[in-house]
Amino acid sequence: MSKLTPHQELALSTIGHMALTANAGSGKTFVLARKYLDALIKDDLEISSIAAITFTEKAASELYLKISILIDERVKESNNFYKKKKLEKIRRQLVSANISTIHSFCISILREYPVEAELDARFIPIDENLSEELIELSVEEMVRASFENELVVEDLKYLIRIFSSKIKLQNQIVKLIKNRKNVFAVKEKIYCKNEKNIADFFFEEFSKNFFIIWNKQKSQFLKNLSLINSSVKVSDSKNTTAIEVESKLEKLKTESELIQILKLLVEIKALAFTEKIQIRKRGYLKNEAASAVANEIGAAEDLMKNLYSFQIPENHQEIERELARFGKTILTFFESALNIYEGKKKNEGFIDYEDILLHTKVLLENKGVQKSISDKYKFIMVDEFQDTNEIQYQIFLPILDYLKGGRLFIVGDEKQSIYKFRDAEIEIFNLTRSDIKNSVGENNLLILPDSFRMTPTICAFCNYVFKNLFSEPDESLGEVPATDLVCARVDDKIGHVEFLISREENENTSDSEAELAAKKILFLIKNSNYAFKDISILVRKRKYFADLEKVFLKYEIPFTIVGGRGFYQRQTIADVFNYLSFLADENNSSALVGLLRSPFFNISDSKLFEISLIKGRSFWRKLNLAKDDEEITSICDLLNENISMSSSVSLPDLIYKIITDRNFLSILSSRNDCDQEIANLNKLISISRNFNAVGFRNLYDFLTFIKDSITSLADESQASITSNANAVQMMTIHQSKGLEFPVVFLYKTDEAGLSNAIKSGEVKVDKKYGLLTKVPVDQNYFEEYQIAPIAVMHNYYEDKKNNAELKRLLYVAVTRAKDELYITSTIKKDSAFKKDSFINLLAEGLKNNFYLDEIVFQNQLEFLKIENENFVSKSEQIHLQIPITSTLETQEIERENEDHNFDNAQINIASLHSQEKGEIISASKVSIYSQCPLKYLLTYEYGFGKFNSDYLNFKFADKQQLKKHFSGSDIENDFENDDERFESFESEIKDYDSALYGRLFHKAMEKSFYPNQIEDFIKDEFGTELNNEIISEKLLDRLKNDLINFSRSKTFSLISSAKEFKSEFEIYVADQDYYLHGIIDKIIFDGKKILIYDYKTDDIEKKEIKKHAEYYLMQLKFYLYIASKLFSEFEFFEGSLVFVKHPDDVVTLNYDKVQIKELEKEITNIIKSIRMKNSEKNIKHCKVCSFSGLTNKCIIN
Fold first, then answer.
1. What is the C-alpha separation between 1093 and 300, in angstroms, rounded?
2. Which of 341, 480, 507, 968 is paired with 842 by a 20 to 30 Å CA distance?
């Protein structure tokens, strides 16, 4: 990838606004990173004038890392001093770069202009859970107030009757508030009119859109049906049905009136089609004639289904008026509830996820602000632009003065737009491309067709299938054009595609879809070079994992479920829920029995039965009476202790205590899924912490929340686990976006999604058509509600757009595979494929019904190859022979014995709490936190670092005076009593500045000097500062002596003999949603080993080295860790502390790759705690801490 393809070169050399369509695996992130760096170097833009917007925080981190690597490579390659300095400057500034999601970007704008945005300057973005809770409370308040308001109570009752209950009405208003940006749009466009005009608008829009659809489909419909009808007449020229159909088809050709067209369609449907809208066989098209027009039959049936759905009921005007009344009425209550919600947020200084974009859009309507922001941002880059929506478009365009200023660079692939459910609008991608074309011309609409990911077989399969599925795209239906993949794989792998089909007529359960997948995985492990972790199973919905879990456990196939499923339904969560329920209510006997049977206590059923026979009002009373049993007595003591604590400690602390009291974690650690269960417990603590953070909530409220989540079967994902375990990865296709795997299984392709058609009791917000639902006519609430034609039109477009997105979802799934692709399905004999299923799309794309043993076809494939160090385009005919497998033998494989490590079962009480994204974690921060969390809090959070330094100078200056005045006295002896704080900071009060001296020494070591020329070197480097009296001669004398001493050491000889090294090497590494930063004095690259040297200028005696080294070891560990992340190709890492007064008494740490993993855990846990703001006091550190008084006690009681 270091050599640019012709398409990449064109993308990088094109100037001005640009839209780049990037195929799967084409290296778009690399191009984005290069484009970003070129803007800084070639265009000389300031880093603050560039904004790079990504779809996720993870993508932002990846882009940041790519840019960092590019800079480091250029620094290494550059021989130009000034260019190198500029690159190093960019590297330092990169940590402040605007590389973020759209929401993070908008938050930064709102922080800059809070007054103009009419926000509290200290506004707090809130998460979805708190937002939803506040919305629900606001809606409840609104409903209560409305019942007491005579002016609106009848309208409220009207809505409750329509929704059949108050709760359903409240739920729909909650949804409207969450989707308020679209509600605002329809309110302004449609509901400013009176009810009659709104009703007229509904029918006019229906009529206009019907003719758009009719004019597109008319010709094909008439042609297909005419051919079918002619086929009927060939076999039976006097067929009366055919003669009638022909007559009506002739009328349809010229008819222009809406009602008449629909009437003719009804008549033709009655003549030529069955009730299920299939071509009539009896009395019309006989079987022998049907085969000649099979394609026309399928097309005619599909078209008739579309067109027949547009029938207009005779009372359509009444329905439309009722729908208009409904819309205006519900908007009144929506506004009331929204006002209450806005008030609640304003009182607390909150803004929610939806507010962030809405406030930014409104802010940019302020001409002054818009100009100021336009002046600031000269270049905006947006990744994954196919997933953008209208409001984001309305933010980007004003910032760039509607493409009259600055530069816009959008990257995306319309074939991978799969987030319609998150309000992504593929039309915006096309609209922006059109804007760019109109602004700078068609040459700035570029494409990256070359895929470095997929093998030729997968590329050819993909091109063949999607050329058929994406043919003749209709942009108004969200359809996209096909763009062929060009295979740019550099290895010789051919690849493999195979269908695993479970035939339902086969009664052998060993050939079920899950069994076939499991057996094929075992076959691959046994006969190929793949490991379990190279394999991913992709599904549309998480519920499909259930069958796989059972079969994988049967065959002992290790697996992880990314995101998991059914978090609240896990038994571990239920066990904790029972424990908390009992602590809240001692008389809750069912909770107590469930708790005692659980891994918390593991009491047998027989013993529980014995206890139940004891007389007592509750099981808790009976348990306390079983005094003759020692185990039960200890359990009662523990439960009594926790009952007492439950009302006085925080929720997270309580949960932490109950799961760490006994051997609960050890029992969990013995399970195959122990990593997942421990992660789930950490997630539960995190949920409790966030729940606890909102005021006036207690244990009872939390139990209600958990109970509702369990009983409602809330599809909350399990905690994510960042494990490198050798396990098959299961995930949804949406979760796989942006990822790639050597082997992909696409599972359950015969399953279809749920219908998204408008139903009674729910409101759909259509930005074009308004608020849509089924409504009662003439207040008839007990018969089936009726649907307005405009709502039918909405259903039509939604169905088509969902089908178009389904094709794109299939494209994303197929293009995750690098080497091998397996597609599994269950097929029923003589049964049609479900319309909205992948297998139906694959049947259409491959023109195959999967009844045979293989699918054979040829396809022309373009290749991009490197010959003589140049890219060459070639075209080859690829012959594909795709097996269809329905039975497989079980494979036996050799397995390694794995012991579960109980020590790894750690509960992090601070896990997953809200944190500052983009935070910089430095070596100093980690070092100080490891000494004492409270010291860190005082230094970094409360800003007492400078105060503390001044205090030390004052305190120990006094101490020096005492020593002078009372030399030889008892007081002197008191001070000599091993006061390590004084010893550590003694250098601060000598007659030179130790911090300045440290900087001078490090600066000297950064330069190259010869041992015999040190005096000349010091004069050249520091002579000016000496003459200007910035530094003293005494200080330079000390520097000279130390450098001479150091240059005579073995350590200096070793360091100076290194061939590959960097001095004062600054590292920024993106890690999760924060950045790690450190400046390493010396880093040496020696074969497969990295050596790090950290110079310390402490004025200490040799005997004190070990003690002082303890203060610095965590800092050294941090350097080793970030170096291992940046240079992951190295095998060994060695870190050395060099005290310059004693340069050959080096303190050294050594790590290999396995040990680095352990170090990663240590560092990561410290960082987690830092970010959770855990600030417990480390009393052991007090006697050496700068924040303790002369009595060795912390200044914080």
1. 77
2. 507
